[in-house]
Every structure is written in structure tokens, then in C-alpha cells.
Design goal:
Blueprint: H1 17-28, H2 45-60, E1 64-67, E2 73-77, E3 87-92, H3 105-121, E4 129-134, H4 147-152, H5 158-163, H6 172-180, E5 197-203, H7 208-212, E6 216-222, E7 224-233, E8 237-238, H8 250-264, E9 273-275, E10 279-282, E11 288-289, E12 292-301, H9 304-320, E13 326-335, E14 338-339, H10 342-354, E15 359-364, H11 370-373, E16 379-384, H12 400-418
Parallel strand pairs: 3-4, 3-5, 5-16, 6-15
Antiparallel strand pairs: 1-2, 2-4, 6-14, 6-16, 7-12, 7-13, 8-11, 9-12, 10-12
The protein binds zinc ion (ZN).
């Protein structure tokens, strides 16, 4: 079929700032909290209402809707080649219990705005362009997180996921059935359908873009992480009678370990992230020398070499510092860094340049659904600034201008990949 591809810069002129802002406001009413955020946890009534609202908008514009075995919601604008795999975009509609109005939902609605802009511009793409709202990215009500994108990508087992329960004992299976009943019936499709590319727009959830006065983050990948649990064992003793030289004080030993770890993880460029989020001192009595300390290490970096080298150095370092106590170091989780596809990264960077928007390359500090799409198809992400870098918080805010800029970059990127 002969195509008359629109010149670069066409579709973004049809990206409508007011319409996108209105859709974000309409979505934010579902699960709205008194402090201005949203509580729209995965597979809740509010999640079902959000899906119904998006489905209604999609049907009204003549787009096709579909779902799958975990309730991922797909909105498709057809391309000229029915055999071509879709170029996909999207994110998630679920939120944290005290979540904001932009985390996730921005990526879904920016994608939907692109579908509408393509429609308004009358642009025909060869590939279909498809918006997806992944089920349960947040993992606040049901673990594991990112279950929708992980199942789509073949990285989890459906029966295992359906059997997961929330703190009230409600299973994913039951909650999913109730949630899907709130949206109109639609065709179901299998997991793992081919995708030509995947591009996810998201608020940065960090302070960097705002601090540098930039509009667009060209995301190069998602940093890797390694989690450890450390157990230091000493000996409980009387705090008044035991000389320091005779003590096996688990806390003092743990303190030396933390100091040495801070030295190991010191990074003048401030890219390494190292957090001791849990620190338990036992037995926790003011007049007993601590006999045991349990603490956790969360360590992250975008470079696989650094993740390996620094992570592998942790256990030997802690063992060398253990005397007169003993130490057990257990790695509890390992996630390799994800590098996004240069094809998509370059398309995002070029789109920002084309639109005259200030931008920088950067890694993602948080995990996203894009992590699971990256091994399946050329994948990338677009960040926009959020106020004070605050996210997972009811005060989370991104300006209409920045939301529009991100959607415009997304539009140009998707068209380039879909033509
Ligand atoms: Zn998110």
C-alpha cells in the first residue's frame, strides 16, 4: 500500500495540552484522596472504574480494545499493514495507597493522546500503534509488582500470580474477575503477542530534570540492584560490668561495617545508591550489650560492571570486619541493569531536538514495566520533570506544559517507529 508519511513534526502539532490535562484530571477523580492524590490500587473498584473510563474514551474514538489473562488493557489504532506488529506505548493505571495523580497514569494518557493526535492529523502508520495499561505495576496491594508486564513477557507463571492474595486474603483471581466486570466486555488475547517496539512515558520520580531546568529525560536504561541481609552475632552481656575489651558487641561491629560500606559505595558522581533501610538491634534493652544486629543493604547502579564489582565486594569486606563477632551475609534479590535499545533512545533524543526541547540522557532510578519489555522488543522511556522530585506521594505534580512536552516527544518517537 502506498503511504504518504507525514513529515517529522506533524503529529506533535496535534498533541493537545488541554485535552491531556483534562483527561488526567478526569482520571484523578477516580480514587481521589483528601490531600489531592489518588488511592487506586491494583484490581480495586477504582482500578475497574479507571479501566472503564479509558475504554469508553477508546470506543468513542473508534479504537479497538482488548484484554488478556491478567487484565492488561490494550487500545489499538490500526495501521495500514494488518500483519505488522504494533508499536506499543503505555504504563499503569494503579497507584500506591497514598499515590499521586501522575505516576503511571501519565504514561497511559500520554499514549492515548498520541492515538488521538494521529487520528486528528489523519496520519496513517504502517504498524498499528497500541496503548497498554499494565495490571498492578505498583505491587502495593498484591505482590509481585509489575505482574501484568512480567506475565506478558513470559517472566512469571499465571497460576502462581492468580493465587497471590492481598492482606485481606482476597486472591488476584477473584479481584481480577470483579475488576474486569466493571468495564465493558472485550476480546481476550494471549500473552506475548509480538511488539515492534515499546516506549513508556513517565514522570521522573526524582529531582534531576527540575534541578537542571530541563524538560525531557532521554532514558538510557534502568539501573540494576542487589539486596543483602546481614546478620551480625555477638554476645549479650551486662552493660555495667562488662569491660569494652571483653565485649562482643554486635552493634559496634555493625557500625564499623556500615562505615566501611559507605566508603566502598562512595561515589563522587552520586550515581551509586546504597541504603540501609532496616536496622534491628537485639535484644533491644538499654542495659544489655547487643548480641545480634540484622540489617539490610539496597545497592543500585545502572552499569552491570559496577553492580557486579561493588556487590561482590560486600561479603568479603563484612567478613574481614566481623571479629570479635561473626557475620552471615545473604543476597536476597538481584536485578541486572537494563540497557534500552539505541534505536529507541536515539528516536527519543531526536524527537526532543526536533521539538526544541531541552533534554539530557539519564538512567531510571526506579523500576518500570519497560524493564520487562526491553528483552522482547526495542524499548525506551521518556521522562518529564515532577515537582521537587516527589513521587509515591499525594502531592506529586507535573505541570501541564511538561505533560504536553512529553506527549509530543512520545508522538514523534512513535510515528518514527511505526511508519
Ligand atoms: Zn509508575
Amino acid at each position: 500500500m502506498a503511504l504518504s508519511p507525514a513529515p517529522a513534526g506533524t503529529v506533535s502539532r496535534f498533541v493537545n495540552q488541554a485535552r491531556l490535562a483534562q483527561r488526567l484530571a478526569d482520571m484523578a477523580r477516580i480514587g481521589a484522596t483528601a490531600k489531592g492524590g489518588v488511592n487506586r490500587q491494583a484490581l480495586s473498584v477504582e482500578d475497574g472504574q479507571a479501566r472503564a473510563l479509558l475504554t469508553g474514551w477508546a470506543v468513542a474514538r473508534g479504537f479497538d480494545v482488548a484484554t488478556d489473562g491478567i487484565g492488561n488493557l490494550f487500545v489499538r489504532r490500526a495501521g495500514s499493514n494488518p500483519d505488522a506488529a504494533p508499536v506499543m506505548t503505555g504504563s499503569h493505571l494503579d497507584s500506591q495507597p497514598t499515590g499521586g495523580r501522575y505516576d503511571g497514569v501519565y504514561g497511559v494518557l500520554a499514549g492515548f493522546e498520541v492515538l488521538e493526535a494521529l487520528e486528528d492529523a489523519g496520519i496513517t502508520t504502517r504498524h498499528p500503534v497500541e496503548v497498554v495499561a499494565w495490571t498492578n505495576e505498583e505491587g502495593s496491594r498484591f505482590q509481585p509488582y509489575c505482574m501484568g508486564s512480567a506475565l506478558f513477557a513470559g517472566k512469571m507463571d499465571l497460576e502462581m500470580v492468580l493465587a497471590c492474595t492481598d492482606p485481606k486474603g482476597i486472591s488476584v483471581r477473584d479481584a481480577l474477575a470483579e475488576t474486569l466486570a466493571l468495564a465493558p466486555p472485550m476480546p481476550s488475547r494471549p500473552f506475548g503477542t509480538p511488539a515492534a517496539a515499546y516506549v513508556e512515558a513517565h514522570i521522573e520520580q526524582g529531582p534531576r530534570l527540575e534541578a537542571e531546568g530541563l524538560t525531557i529525560g532521554v532514558v538510557q536504561g534502568i539501573q540494576g540492584s542487589r539486596w543483602f541481609q546481614v546478620e551480625v552475632t555477638g554476645q549479650e552481656a551486662h552493660a555495667g560490668t562488662t569491660p569494652h575489651g571483653a565485649r562482643k558487641d554486635a552493634f559496634q561491629t555493625a557500625l564499623r561495617m556500615v562505615t566501611a560500606l559507605n566508603d566502598l559505595m562512595h561515589d563522587p558522581d552520586d550515581i551509586i545508591r546504597c541504603t540501609f533501610g532496616r536496622f534491628e538491634v537485639l535484644p533491644g534493652s538499654p542495659n544489655t550489650v547487643p548480641g545480634k544486629v540484622i540489617f539490610t543493604i539496597d545497592f543500585r547502579h545502572p552499569d552491570a560492571g559496577v553492580v557486579k564489582e561493588k556487590g561482590d565486594a560486600i561479603a568479603p569486606l563484612l567478613h574481614s570486619l566481623a571479629a570479635p563477632c561473626t557475620v552471615m551475609v545473604k543476597e536476597t534479590s538481584t536485578t541486572a541493569p537494563v540497557d534500552f535499545d539505541p534505536l529507541v533512545v536515539e528516536a527519543v533524543r531526536d524527537a526532543a531536538g526536533l521539538l526544541g526541547l531541552s533534554h539530557r540522557d539519564m538512567p531510571s532510578g526506579a523500576n518500570h514495566d519497560a524493564k520487562f519489555m526491553a528483552p522482547r522488543c526495542p524499548t525506551g522511556m521518556i521522562f518529564i520533570p515532577c515537582k521537587d522530585g516527589i513521587s509515591h506521594n499525594e502531592v506529586e505534580y507535573a505541570s501541564p506544559e511538561h505533560c504536553h512536552a512529553g506527549a509530543a516527544v512520545l508522538a514523534e518517537t512513535l510515528v518514527r517507529l511505526a511508519v
